[in-house]
Amino acid sequence: MKRFGISLFAMAAALAAGAPAQAADEVVIGAVYPLTGNGAAVGLDAKAVLEVGQDLLNNAHDPIPMLMGKGGGLAHLGGAKIRIVFADSQNDPQKARAEAERLITQEHAVAIIGSYTSATAATISQVTERYEVPYMSADNSSPSLNQRGLKWFFRTSPHDEMFTAAMFQFFKDIGAKTGHPVKSVALFYEDSIFGSDSSGAQRKLAGTSGINVAADIKYRASSPSLSAEAQRLKAADADVIMPSSYTSDAILILRAMNEIGYKPKAIMAQAAGFQEQGFLTGAGPLAEGTMSRSSFALDAARTRPAIPAVNAIYKAKNGKDLNDNTSREITALMVLADAIDRAGSAKPDDIRKALIATDVPGSQTIMPWAGVKFDETGQNTKGTPVIQQVTNGTYHTVWPFDLAVQETVWGVK
Amino acid sequence: MDNRITRRRRRELVVGAVLLVALILLPLPIGDVYTRNLIIISILFAGLAQAWNILGGYCGQISLGHSLYFGIGGYVSTLLFVQAGVPPLIGMFAGGLVGGLVALLVGWPCFRLSGHYYAIATVVVAEIGYLLFLNWDFVGGAMGVYIPFKGDSWLALQFRTQKLPYHYVVLAFAAATWLAAWCIEGSRWGFSWRAVKDDVVAARSLGVRVFPSKMAAAAISGFFTGMGGAIYAQYVGYIDPDSTMSGQLAILIALPAVLGGVGTLWGPFLGAAVLTPLSELSRSYLGGSGRGVDLMIYGLVIVVVALARPAGLLSLFGLRRRAKGAPDGSPA
Fold first, then answer.
1. Does domain B2-325 have CATH number 1.20.50?
2. B chain contacts of residue A194, beta-carbon cutoff 8 Å
3. What's the total number of domains in chain A?
4. Is A326 contained in some domain?
5. Which of A377, A382, B188, B246 could anchor a disulfide with A146, C-beta 3.0 to 4.6 Å?
6. How far apart are alpha carbons A323 and B303 in whole angstroms?
7. Nearest CB to A88: which of B131, B290, B316?
């Protein structure tokens, strides 16, 4: 037992001493994601896509028509390479905070990218604020994050209010186009931070758009049964059901509504579970016609020529197509790398200035956005989302109409 | 016999003082914030485990719901600070008081249950508390509460990048829990509690008032746990139900005490000194791979200790002497 204790200590000591020294010609970016525990599936995808991004930035390859798509390192830094150091937050705010601190002080990260969940982003962005390095929020969608007066917070992704605004804009546009406007919605949302934020924005916008909220249903995430909730949705029979749910709940509510013989006129989901491949497979034919907002449109290759190339490389590595999360993550990395390159310096202060000056047109990204330009709170104001609809088992972009690949199937009468 | 106990207790006090001085000096030569953070978290969990030990160890009431008192302590001090401007240095005592009060409220019905039933009841009550906070908009609901940074201040317990002040705050906290445990061990209360732990019927026949004993232990334990929650909230700068009231946290509070040695003065500290660095270091240096190697190592250590030393790590030290001389019937 004593020897066991000694070897443990030796292991800890060896680990503590093992921090690699930073080479002169590389720039370290820290990435904090949940790599184990709940959220690990998303975190591991993030790791895979960021590694793809790292390879695209550093290695020589055929040029891809997008920001930083040439490869060969950072031109203005003498071809310096980007090295991403990953850290596991285990989806715990305290651990995310400690890891961000470690990446900055020990790995000498000049910027941090992260972090999937909003709770971990809340603490990471406090650390980056105190150490004065930029935090690039790739995929945190809580609207409150950029409203805390932080100087070092940047978010390429749209947040939930922008996503929700797009949904209501779509309701208006489709109403004008078909002559069947949305008169009532039913909110259906899980009880964690995501559902609270999302439904809050929806309630507010429904109010200002003069749309009646026929039902306001909060449920316990990962419930074993959603039959009672399905009954309430049926009773309300709103024009559009607006769910904010993760994968298993998304499948469950469609099945529960089907079991009681209720076919909703339209479903407009706040992405999340509804945008996962697991949902499309699990819900099968029940998913047909479901609409969801998305910050990414895999089928927008006509206007975003870089999508097929990036998607092919990612798919070869991780066996899946780019999705709502992974596309936002690699885009955030490219925007960050571009800022470092333009700054011509790995000093956090110079990077911050370059980020503030960022103005990238949407066509230079893989996103359907108008572009990337940060306002004074660090929020990208040009991150305009799209609306997609499931037909034949996959999502197709239906709005904005100029990006649409097919007509909307609109059940509201 | 009495002399031996007095001598042993005096020796413990001396060891405690030496350790305290050592821990005061420990961070001074350490420059990097990562190691300092590691030490701070370890000491915090040492204090929390000791707080748990007061109820779970000395009084034998296994609580798997201490996350409730921890979270409530954190919320009370945070909300007092954010909503009313009460400095957390004061707020953490308020957090502790409310934590203790809630422990009494939980104890009132739950202490009528014994053994496993009590443990299960604490799990359920903590889950109810978690759900309440998750759905209560005044306390931020699922979104939690951000603590705005207002510049370096002892009163607000906020420091930009400094770790040293937090080190001394958690050290004072852990020292207070240790001192409380030390006092209890030698007091009439401590003897009553241990009697309750060993055999309720026998204790009652000796005139020990069982229910009040349990309530007193719960109040003290809840107080310190709430205080720890308040310190944690201020240290992390953000509080939400998932990170401060989850069932997983309840286990993390109890685990160092169980692994180190339940109902002993040094067990919780030893357990925290082993478990927290193990979990943090392995995550930092092996967790980036995303293969969960760190968690496997963590789990393996717990299993090995549980198999090899069921009475806790503390039994590695002075086992034989204790087996002969210990009057307190600590599990060996």
1. no
2. 142
3. 2
4. yes
5. A377
6. 40
7. B290
- Mean pLDDT along residues B8-28: 92
In a domain, A1, yes or no: no
CB of A119 less than 8 A from some CB of B: yes
Residue appearing with tokens 């034998």: B60
Contact between A174 and A408 (Cβ < 8 Å): yes
Buried b (16+ CB within 10 A) or exposed e, A170-206: bbeebbeeeeebbebbbbbbbbbbbbbbbbbbbbebb
Whether pLDDT at B324 is above 80: no
**Are A152 and A195 part of one and the same domain?**
no
Note whether A23 contacts B: Cβ–Cβ < 8 A: no
User: Do A276 and A290 belong to one domain?
Assistant: yes
Nearest-CB residue to A94 (from B32, B35, B236): B236
Instruction: Give the integer Cα–Cα distance in Å for B295 and B301.
Output: 10
User: Is B240 in contact with A44 (Cβ distance < 8 A)?
Assistant: no
Closest CA to A397 of A301, A313, A264: A301
The reported pLDDT for the residue numbered A302 is 86
Question: What is the extent of the structural domain holding A332?
Answer: 19-158+304-372
Average the pLDDT over A134-160 and give the result: 92
CA dihedral A9, A13, A16, A19 (to 10 degrees): -140
**Whether residue A229 is found in the same domain as residue A178:** yes
A215 has pLDDT over 90: yes
Give the count of beta carbons closer than 10 Å to the beta carbon of residue A21.
6
- A173 with A243, same domain: the answer is yes
A263 inside 8 A of chain B by CB = no
The chain-wide mean pLDDT, for chain A, equals 89
Is residue A20 scored above 50 in pLDDT? no
Q: pTM for the whole thing? A: 0.84
- Tell me the pLDDT tens digit for each residue of B91-124: 999 999 999 999 999 999 999 998 889 999 999 9
Same domain membership, residue A205 and residue A179: yes
B281 → closest Cβ in A4, A16, A119: A16
Would you kindly state where each structural domain of chain B is located, as residue ranges?
2-325
Buried (b) or exposed (e) across A308-336, using 16+ Cβ within 10 A?
A: ebbbebbeeebeebbbbbbbbbbbbbbbb
- 3-class secondary structure, B278: helix
Q: Which of residues 78-107 of A touch B (CB under 8 A)?
A: 85-88, 90, 92-95, 97-99, 101-102, 105-106
Chain A to chain B Cβ contacts (< 8 Å): 121
